[in-house]
Design a protein that fits this description.
Radius of gyration: 33 Å
Shape: elongated
Structural class: alpha+beta
Largest sheet: 5 strands, mixed
Length: 200
């Protein structure tokens, strides 16, 4: 019996499996990079939300401080006189918040058609020429700020505007107050403004 010789087929290698593996690796790398970017954006968003909350709470604290200031609920008030007494209002509230001493931060309402006073005041000014009241200036209350931990960069500030409620032409107008406060986050450029109306 005659033996047939073995026939060996040699096909040329095309490298398709290498290309497929490389494509899969590229896709996996892109998914990994996208996952890292999404997690970084989520972390940044959470940090921004935290900073806004800190500024919001600081502004709320300033509104409470202003209420204590108006009502003199805090013992040891640092005001020499009571500018919020109905008989004293005309003497202590100034146009454009130009008052000093016990009149600091006490503003008369702008004329109709003009922007409200709180839009014209620089709440970031901390110099001696500032027209706003720093937290605790007249109440003696303390407020922690600084770089230790996560705290506001500076104390919140506020202004108190004198407004009048004209109920009827036969009666004198009832005075009330608009308090505008600005709180700061861990950076001074993170700011929240809150307002309240206060009636005695």
């Amino acid at each position: 019996m005659k033996q047939q010789p073995a026939i060996h087929c040699h096909r040329q290698q095309q490298g398709m499996s290498l290309i497929m593996v490389m494509l899969i690796m590229v896709v996996i790398s892109m998914l990994g990079i996208s996952g890292v970017q999404i997690s970084m954006m989520a972390e940044r968003g959470a940090r921004n939300d935290r900073d806004i909350q800190i500024a919001f709470q600081a502004a709320e604290a300033a509104l409470i401080d202003a209420e204590f200031d108006i009502t003199s609920k805090v013992s040891g008030s640092k005001r020499v006189s009571n500018p919020f007494d109905k008989d004293n209002l005309e003497f202590f509230f100034f146009a454009d918040c130009t008052g000093t001493g016990d009149s600091l931060g006490l503003c008369k309402e702008n004329a109709e058609g003009q922007p409200p006073v709180w839009l014209q005041v620089d709440f970031t000014d901390t110099t001696n020429a500032a027209k706003t009241i720093e937290f605790g200036k007249f109440t003696g209350r303390t407020f922690k700020v600084g770089t230790a931990g996560i705290q506001p960069a500076q104390k919140p500030r506020y202004v108190i505007e004198l407004l009048r409620d004209y109920k009827s032409p036969n009666q004198p107008p009832d005075p009330y107050f608009r308090v505008t406060a600005m709180g700061f986050g861990p950076r001074a450029d993170i700011q929240v403004v809150l307002q309240m109306m206060y009636r005695n």
